[in-house]
Amino acid sequence: MKPAAPTAVNNIELDIAGMTCASCAMRLQKRLNKLDGVDAQVNYATERAVVTVPAGYDPRALIAEVEKVGYTAALPRREPDCQTTETAATGELAALRIRLIAAAVLAVPVIAMAMIPAWEFRYWQWASLALATPVVVWAGRPFHAAAWANLKHGAATMDTLISVGTLSAFLWSLYALFLGPAGRPAIRHGFELTAARAHVATGAGSIYLEVAAGVTLFVLAGRYFEKRSKRRAGAALRALLELGAKDVAVVRDGTETRVPVDRLDIGDEFVVRPGEKIATDGTVVAGSSAVDASMLTGEPVPVEVGEGDRVTGGTVNAGGRLIVRASRVGDDTQLAQMARLVETAQSGRAEVQRLADRIAGVFVPVVIVVAAATLAAWLAAGSPITAALTAAVAVLIVACPCALGLATPTALLVGSGRAARLGVLIKGPEVLESTRRVDTIVLDKTGTVTTGTMTLADVITGAHADRETLLRYAGAVEDASEHPVARAIAGAAAAELGALPAARDFANVGGRGVCGVVDGHAVVLGRDSLLAERGQRIDAELSSAAARAEREGKTAVAVGWDGRARGILVVADTVKPTSAAAIRQFKRLGLTPVLLTGDNETVAGRIADEVGIAHVLSGVLPAGKVAAVKRLQSEGKVVAMVGDGVNDAAALASADLGLAMGTGTDAAIEAADLTLVRGDLRAAVDAIRLSRRTLRTIKTNLFWAFGYNLAAIPLAALGLLNPMLAGAAMALSSVFVVGNSLRLSSFVSTIRDDPVG
Predict the structure, then answer these.
(1) Which terminus of the chain faces fewer neighbouring Cβ atoms within 10 Å, N or C?
(2) Alpha-carbon separation of residue 162 from 142, 289, 730 (angstroms)
């Protein structure tokens, strides 16, 4: 029987409004997941739902389902108007700030009069009522409105706890003032930190206006600082989205036309003047300049580019005028892919968050039950109703599922955003846990530890030549060849001497070398056997130098003219200047570096010795890289793999943690868990350090959130916590979690910590 063909699916993202705590997100997620074929993840911190649906599913059905639960949803704009979005967010924060300021002005005198008996003037309680009423009714209106909306849908959230708690305290105070003895002129109200010692026999003579006003004030303050901090946490992603140019000068029919960047097509040529952003990914077809890519890669030093070099959209032209041919536009650009990866990472859930999610889903109903049981237990024990009510309200107020819901998302927001600014893209939160377990890091040699391009490493002149002439003649002949060794020689010669003469009668001799005529001299380059055939034998000194270079795994090119061998050019794939520093850092992180290469043992040993790697796997063919990774895993190692080529993709996918150099191929990047936008191996160190620190932050947040509730709820139930102080503690718990996450934004790159040297 043939297996059923997999059903095509699409991912739909929705911006959610109206969520006030983690239990809101969990309730909405459960509701969406009840729909046929729908798999949803709702993130409270990012206020976004990522929904996997069958192909062709109408997003309007999802939006309607969200609205049935009492929230609103909309499809995000693919190319957001960042200014409009920022204005809306600023307006929302400003409205919350107005409520907070008004609540502070009115509530502080209420709290002060309740706590300091000397300030309780004649009829002070009626002044407190006048001040507290707008705080509870108007400033606290968002809590009551959300609680009522949730009640209509048969649900309870954090707003339910706040609304029930503050209204209970307020309504009891009204009863005591209008129907009880609390309205008498000379009444005094002593403030106590606990319920157990207060109101032993006062009964209806007690009022709780300071609790109703104070809790509203503290929770509003917590919401305000939480929202402001969450905006800061998402700043890195907004910066990425805003990096792109808005318009571009396109060259069409020989004239420049300024058009919006979304009208740019692949193959179009456009002008980038000094100081302008490069509009999209492309190739320089004319001009030369220095390009500042620091916002995209974290690399502070501008990169020199010229004709034929690739450039990335969003980077800044810091020097001369460039003409660039567009190679990728829109959602295919590197900038768009980076933003997409960062968004995906910020929307996911780490394994450590799942227990918190399950608890948050049932937390509020459990708290309401605990509060009711507390009230009943105190009354059953013969305590006055005021003391019982105080303890029950404290339970309602002190409980805080918000901290549980914010623990992972805020750390991911800040951590992945900071990583993006350093040129590190984290695919998802599960990657963070992989970095903690890794103990072995396998490094592909070519393009990862080394530059991946041939470079002129040495010029050895014989007795009958000088360096300048040797480079001039050799560079002129090799300039006509496209071989990597030829390009290395010609490039080095041009860089040192400037313009090279043109070679006549160029010929490639059967893969053994090349020859041509330069300034009337018949120049031959290649193997010593080719020079010998042309009557240009190599003397013992040059032969010894060539043999030494070959033993070191380098390529030796003999050069001769006019019947005599004149010198040796040594070409090699050189080690990146930052690789040794990166290896030192890997060891400090407790990782064992392993060099993986298809080169022979001699070449591999030389590279390994140069960078300080003790473990080498040489002679490994591309097809054998996966087997090499699996062999290490079978030995009990937890393996990270760093690579950049197509032939690394399978090994990157097989490793416990795959890191792709962003300078490499799309196949490698697609297979990896982490992408390093920079070609600097120290970016891999940054990736692992920042991932581990983000995971530690998540665990600290969760420990605090769980510990806070485990300690605070029993204290409140036992009457050891005044409701007003409970409200302050609840607000501070959320602010603490967000503030702890924001510390990740100060993460310092390895490049600063350990400069090349």
Answers:
(1) N
(2) 10, 60, 10
- C-alpha closest to that of 423 among 306, 334, 347: 334
Hey, how many other C-beta atoms are within 10 angstroms of the C-beta on 563? 10
**Catalytic one of 159, 357, 444, 528:** 444
Rounded Cα–Cα distance for residues 236 and 417 (Å): 5
d(CA 460, CA 466): 9
d(CA 314, CA 243): 5
Active-site residue flag, 444:
yes
Contact 416, 695 (CB under 8 A): no
Judging by beta carbons within 10 Å of its beta carbon (0-12, 13-18, 19+), is residue 119 exposed, middle or buried? exposed
* Per-residue pLDDT tens over the stretch 156-215: 776 777 787 788 778 888 887 887 777 777 676 655 555 554 443 344 456 778 778 887
- List the structure tokens of 36: 């046929």
Q: Would strands 72-74 and 9-17 be described as parallel, antiparallel, or unpaired?
A: antiparallel
| pLDDT tens digits, one per residue of 399-428 | 766 666 667 777 777 787 788 778 777 776
- The pair phi, psi for residue 715, each rounded to 5°, is -60, -45
Which tokens is 166 given? 């503050």
Burial 149-167 (b: 16+ CB within 10 A, else e): bbeeeebbbbbbbbbbbbb
pTM of the model: 0.63
Sheet of strand 322-328: strand arrangement: 255-260, 247-252, 269-272, 322-328, 281-286, 310-311
Summarised one tens digit per residue, pLDDT across range 39-57 is 888 877 667 788 888 887 8
Closest C-alpha among 185, 169, 210 to residue 126? 185
* Cα 359 to Cα 709: distance, rounded to the nearest angstrom: 11
Q: Report the candidate in 602, 513, 596, 598 with the shortest Cα–Cα distance to residue 550.
A: 602
DSSP letter at 554 equals: P
And the tokens for 751? 């490049």
Cα 627 from Cα 632, distance rounded (Å) = 9
Band (pLDDT 50/70/90 cuts) for residue 1 is: very low
Write the single-letter amino acid at 721: L
Contact in structure between 410 and 738 (CB atoms under 8 Å): yes
Which residues are within 8 A (CB) of 381 and not within 5 positions of it... i.e. 6 or more apart?
A: none
Residue 437 near residue 688, CB atoms below 8 Å: no
Q: What is the DSSP letter of 202?
A: -
Question: Tokens 């780490």 — which residue?
Answer: 350
Closest CA to 683 of 594, 578, 549: 578
Separation between Cα atoms, residue 83 and residue 650, nearest integer Å: 42
